[in-house]
Amino acid sequence: MKKLLFAPVVAVLLILSSCSKKDSDDSPVIHDPITIELKGNDAMQFVGTTDFNVKSGQDINLILTHIGQLPKEAMGHNVVVLKPGTNLDDFATKAFQSRENDYIPATFASSIVAHAKLLGPGESDAIKFKIETPGVHTFICSFPGHYGTMRGTITVK
Ligand SMILES: [Cu+2]
């Protein structure tokens, strides 16, 4: 297996193309990164799979793409990954009032694991994070009115 490269894209490609790791039995278990792709459309939906399983500490590459055509002001999409136990209604209410911060409520900062940018049509954003705490982490789009239909889960084991 080749030495680890530090350019993230190259590293991901390498990992995707070389799956065998027979060369080291004594090193700690390292899980390959997982890629989570979310696509937001003009019907306030994340298209495709919205429930994902990851291992504790696994590197997560989350790519959000706005595949719709409506303008950002009317149909913007982001994704906010929340800690277990976060009250979604309370969070969404505060998000509503946080337009100046792209609907990321500062008062809920401690409930947010990670979030992607607010996107308009054709835009995408990629974020990297990991979650150590086991449990079901709900993610939503926090654009006003969207969290009812634009949501999913990342279950950490
Ligand atoms: Cu949205």
TrEMBL record:
GO function term, MF aspect, one: copper ion binding
The residue ranges of the Blue (type 1) copper domain are: 38-157
Gene3D superfamilies named among the record's database cross-references: Cupredoxins - blue copper proteins
State the source organism's domain of life.
Answer: Bacteria
Keyword field: Copper, Electron transport, Metal-binding, Signal, Transport
One Pfam family for this entry, by name?
A: Copper-bind
Q: Which InterPro entries does the entry mention?
A: BlueCu_1, Cu-binding_ET, Cupredoxin
The region annotated as signal peptide is 1-22
The name of this protein is: Azurin
